[in-house]
Amino acid sequence: MRDEVADEQLMEHYRDGDAGAFDVLYRRHKGGLYRYLFRLCKDKAVAEELFQEVWSNIIRSRERYQPSAKFTTFLYQVAHNRLIDYLRQKPELGLSLDAEDDDGDAPVQHLQADPQGQPERLVERKRLAEELVEKIAALPALQRETFLLREEAGLSLEEIALATGVTAETAKSRLRYAVARLRDGLRDLR
Predict the structure, then answer these.
(1) 2-189 sits in which CATH class?
(2) Which of 54, 143, 167, 169 could lock onto 178 through a cystine, CB 3.0 to 4.6 A?
(3) How buried is 48 (Cβ within 10 angstroms: 0-12 exposed, 13-18 middle, 19+ buried)?
């Protein structure tokens, strides 16, 4: 039954003392949040540390929670701020996208085989996926973050703007430039 309750309501229930509501929120968002952090910081240990700190911050702030935006916006704003704090402490670490997922596998390892049994199509799909991962990694950090918030977290432009502390127009521009760069970079691959 809780699985049908909106995130914002779950957070309010958690704020009011229902620990089970937090479990549902965690289960819903743990994968996307971890991948977002991992693909931006490129270090599994750091991503795990940041992941735990973000959830700890959510727990600590529960009593002050007011649903002024979607829960995902709130969650990724906390993650964005924690990541920025970490990067300020480690300026030598740049935001980047790693070619591995949270299992340590390249994302292309999870591509489904061609249902027609044509191995050359699978090889081509893997090659395109590897190129896409490389092109995303080559995006400027702010464009990459905006792209990942849109594609990984499913946030709208307004929610990205709230989470990253910029205007909606800035978020829109960053996303537009990121998509244009990816299209340009992948155009010659077909």
Answers:
(1) mainly alpha
(2) 143
(3) middle
Q: What is the DSSP string of 107-150?
A: GGGGPPPPTT--HHHHHHHHHHHHHHHHHHHHS-HHHHHHHHHH
Residue of 183, 150, 153, 184 whose CA lies nearest to 168: 150
- DSSP conformation letters of 171-187: HHHHHHHHHHHHHHHHG
Report the alpha-carbon distance of residue 31 to residue 153 in Å, rounded: 10
pLDDT digits (tens, 9 = 90+) for 1-59: 566 888 899 999 998 888 999 999 999 999 999 988 888 887 899 999 999 999 999 99
Cα(34)–Cα(59) distance, integer angstroms: 17
Would you state the structure tokens that stand for residue 30, as one six-digit string?
A: 């743990």
Type of residue found at 159: E
Structure tokens at 61: 């702030």
Nearest residue to 39 (alpha-carbon basis) of 25, 29, 50: 50
Spatial distance between the Cα atoms of 23 and 39, rounded to a whole number of angstroms: 24
- Residue 178: which region, alpha, beta or left (left: phi > 0; alpha: psi -120 to 50)? alpha
